[in-house]
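Look over this record as teaching material.
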Amino acid sequence: MGRIGTPAKDAAGSGAGRSATDGSLLPVDGNRGSVWIAGQLRQAIVAGTYKHGEKLPAERHLADAFEASRTTVRLALDQLEQERLVTRRVGSGTFVNHRPVSDLDNIADSTSPLELIEARLGLEPHMTRLAVLNATNRDLEKMTEAIEKAEAAGDDPEIWTEWDTQFHLLLAEAAHNRLVLWLYQHINEIRSHDQWASMRDKVLTPARIAEYNRQHRALLGAIASRDVEGAAAMVTSHLHFARRQLMGIEGA
């Protein structure tokens, strides 16, 4: 289904459909009413033909395009409003209220904690090497501040996680490679999904938080000393430590 603009008869004047702004014909069936019209509009919204926040054509334009009465169109819009696909504002019009599920949302929902750690193991050691080579004094200062904030969080896993996440993001920024940073930002977005909250509270005991803080300090020291391979080995060990916690191995 094409976008619906100001309607016009098709060139043949057959009445089989109305012309959309992109030149395609809109399907019209005189035997179908508001349910069918709602279905056509729903399909266009879900497919992204109309974007979130975008204003739909006026009721009179929709009525002409679908060869239906404005009452029928209004009933169709009522149905979409009940489904929360559109929002109707008096005096302004009807606006799309639908955000399509992104690929990242789909991946986040199906990614296990172990898969996330394995992905980080593939990226962070080299990211750390770049940080050792490229980090500025300001980068080091910001990472130091994040570590201090994490330590000040005490045994609170939620606040600690916020600063742990910030520390690793600052590490990505210190690499000064835009593609690496972009990749790591997507990893961080997956870490922010709700499914990680319950896992976090189970894994982050006070003893483990203290150990993570110690590891962060050691890693920052290696970066400040420009120890490329030492820092890469530390972040690898750090992530393997996290992996063992997720696997439930005791004594790690």
